Amino acid sequence: MNNMKKFVPYEKMPDEVKKWKLQASEYRLFKKVDWIVTEKVHGANFCFIVDKQGIQCAKRKEILQPEDDFFGFQILLEKLADQIKQIESLVKQPFERLSIYGELCGGEYPHPDVQADPNVQAVQTGIYYSPTIEFYAGTF
To answer: Active-site residues: which are they?
Structure first.
């Protein structure tokens, strides 16, 4: 899959409106539209990229190689590959490539009733989602 099109990094979300660098007219419009707000999952940006050659994975700034060490993403790819291919088959026309952006989370769940997985590294700490690594892509 070396001849995939150039990867475009996913920008970090600005945490203040003034960082959006809006013109006055854009700011007025911004205040007039309805917004959908979802919870921001505390994790690591992740993307599945699908084209006719297969599936690649990426973190925020680059495509991952199969041997890269990024929270055991290889296990997640194996687990979700069939579902990713189903999504791609639903939207492939007229698109040549599909990018599914989301967040990796989990890897630790400190609770006496939940068995820890010693082979998994926590994506983030402080907020706990699952003892295993999960991929969350919101829909609305």
So the answer is: 40
